[in-house]
UniProtKB/TrEMBL annotation:
CDD domains: RHOD. Keywords: Signal. Residues 51-139 form the Rhodanese domain. This is Rhodanese. GO terms for molecular function: thiosulfate-cyanide sulfurtransferase activity. The keyword Phosphoprotein does not apply. It comes from Nonlabens spongiae. It comes from the Bacteria.
Amino acid sequence: MIKGLLSKYFLLMTFTVWSGLNAQEDTISELLKKYNNQTVEYITADSLQNQYDQFVVLDTRTKKEYEVSHLPGAIWVGQRLRKSRLPEIKPDQKVVVYCTVGVRSEDFGEQLLREGYKNVFNLYGSIFYWKDAGNEVVDIDGKATEKVHTYSRKWSQYLKTGEKVY
């Protein structure tokens, strides 16, 4: 009887470990907690949508990602702060940075804060949460598109809507 219970326990433990290895790695919220320091205040997609015209929106992804799709009116600035790419922004002007899920954009936002910008926000969940909330993204010609560059196949699991591009 004890031998049978031990066998069942072993099978249960094996299944639990196996299931855990094959489960979805993290949610975007867990990724942000894991990789970000929360040094740049977050803004939600809904909050940004409601006040969109009050912000300068900066895309901190690669040029290739930006060309697939981006938030309407977003300015591509790349992953590192370069004054030549940065539009004229007053130090007290409201700025939103975004990337794929919000990790690279926090790094860029930290750079802006160090340069003296005071109203910098990181779009929570970035383009993935923006698109998943039903908001529009546009292609390089400014036309609405369903395509979203997902950075990689691994990261594509976090986008729930739209057409995934790698």
